[in-house]
Amino acid sequence: MSDRISETALTEWLLRGFALIACGLAVSNLASSWWADTSRLTILILLLSEFYTLTLVLIARRATVRDLSPIAVIATTYALFFVVLLSADGTQRLVPEALGVATQVVGISWQVASKVTLGRSFGLLPARRGIVVAGPYRVVRHPIYLGYLIGHVGFLAVNCSLRNLVVLGVFYAAQVIRIVREERLLCASAEYLEYRGRVRWRLVPGVF
To answer: What b/e sequence results for 141-174 when a residue is b if at least 16 CB atoms lie within 10 Å of its CB, and e otherwise?
Structure first.
């Protein structure tokens, strides 16, 4: 059976329900950590970011084709649940809290601008929901992930531990898998091939 399968309404809503549970657990975990120490603004900002993502999952446009291969599902599942694995306990502040917060604000601002530009084409599993080439998508092909990366650097700089470093390292390995799998679907479009020729970098300019 092909990894690229046509969507049905039942499949769509089952996946959204699963995403809702996963994001809900992540939000609950972050809320508990922040409530234990309300001075940790980096945790609060990460919480707000995850809540925004949860909202977008519920209003996203239904995909025409989605990748349900095992590797795509595993990578996406980890990306949904990774926040539950992060911990503010036993961490070190490599920079002042204010600097970490400022970095997160930059990342989230970029992320929000990218998501607003993307509109209802936002999704979790690699899929075809239309092609967007405006705004932040003129800089890199996956600007939302770049926003996550900047924000997570700010979080890790204030909540540094081996555990958090490993959790985020695995998260970005999963993100690379999702990027590659999604582009395999999108490259069926001549419009996307032309866009890929104009915007060279996927995630970080000059790196990947």
So the answer is: bbbbbbbbbbbbebbbbbbbbeebeebbeebbeb
